[in-house]
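Sequence, please.
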């Protein structure tokens, strides 16, 4: 882990000038350099045993990155299954545990898994709802609330997913990251707090922890993507999260986009912000490449 005084530990706060000045005043100058970045600059089978996967629905496709992928594979791990997308070419690749929003493992998450696989990653989109997918916010809230009340089964689910990937012949076992949006962003952080060995953690507007004793379990770099209009995760909480990570020496890139709210990267949601989403996605790819491909 790098020293907390390492100048490379920068927080990238994408905020209007007034907010940046406030942020800089609130953060230890010894642990981070706050700087602006323009948002939107880059366009961007039932019979299987747990731990196995089936190829009955396997299809080949190409994403915008041009890498042929194998998608539609059902991955069986623990007592549930997930969605696996991977490069078609033989070889060993870094991998990502992808964690769904509060809606569940739906088509949007499957599409994101395919997009990321086309960038050269084996992607396992986990299912923390045991096959349930919410069709409205009321059901989504109930499903997410049940997990939050008892997180242990979800944590065991994600740990099993990590072990599933580590055991695969096409995965580099020490190059596995977790990422999630909304509910999944919070669960990505919760997995990191267990001390599970990971190469990186990515949080898209997920619930945060600011207790330094709990955050001390994190040994890997963290990427955080947030909107300054997200009332559920206030800017002040994001800044405290960043400052605390800096004080204990955790490498992190934290971005706060102005004028966008919660779930701004969900193309099917009311808060969708396409320019900010493309910029955040490019930052995600850059972060993964630095920490999983180098």
């Amino acid at each position: 882990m790098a020293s907390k005084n390492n100048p490379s530990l920068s927080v990238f706060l994408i905020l209007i000038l007034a907010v940046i000045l406030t942020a800089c005043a609130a953060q230890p100058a010894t642990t981070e350099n706050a700087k602006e970045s323009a948002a939107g600059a880059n366009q961007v089978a039932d019979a299987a045993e747990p731990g196995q996967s089936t190829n009955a629905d396997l299809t080949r496709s190409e994403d915008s990155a041009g890498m042929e992928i194998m998608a539609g594979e059902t991955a069986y791990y623990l007592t549930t299954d997930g969605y696996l997308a991977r490069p078609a070419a033989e070889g060993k690749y870094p991998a990502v545990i992808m964690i769904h929003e509060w809606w569940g493992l739906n088509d949007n998450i499957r599409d994101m898994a395919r997009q990321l696989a086309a960038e050269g990653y084996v992607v396992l989109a986990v299912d923390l709802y045991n096959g349930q997918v919410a069709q409205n916010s009321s059901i989504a809230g109930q499903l997410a609330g049940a997990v939050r009340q008892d997180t242990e089964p979800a944590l065991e689910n994600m740990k099993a997913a990590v072990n599933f990937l580590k055991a695969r012949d096409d995965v580099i076992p020490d190059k596995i990251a977790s990422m999630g949006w909304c509910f999944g962003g919070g669960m990505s952080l919760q997995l990191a707090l267990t001390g599970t060995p990971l190469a990186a953690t990515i949080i898209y507007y997920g619930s945060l922890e600011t207790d330094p004793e709990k955050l001390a379990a994190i040994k890997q770099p963290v990427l955080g993507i947030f909107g300054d209009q997200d009332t559920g995760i206030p800017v002040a909480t994001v800044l405290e999260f960043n400052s605390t990570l800096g004080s204990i020496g955790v490498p992190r890139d934290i971005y706060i986009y102005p004028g966008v709210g919660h779930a701004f990267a969900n193309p099917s949601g009311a808060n969708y912000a396409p320019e900010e989403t493309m910029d955040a996605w490019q930052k995600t790819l850059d972060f993964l490449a630095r920490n999983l491909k180098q």
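The domain at 37-292 is CATH 3.40.50.1820 (Rossmann fold).
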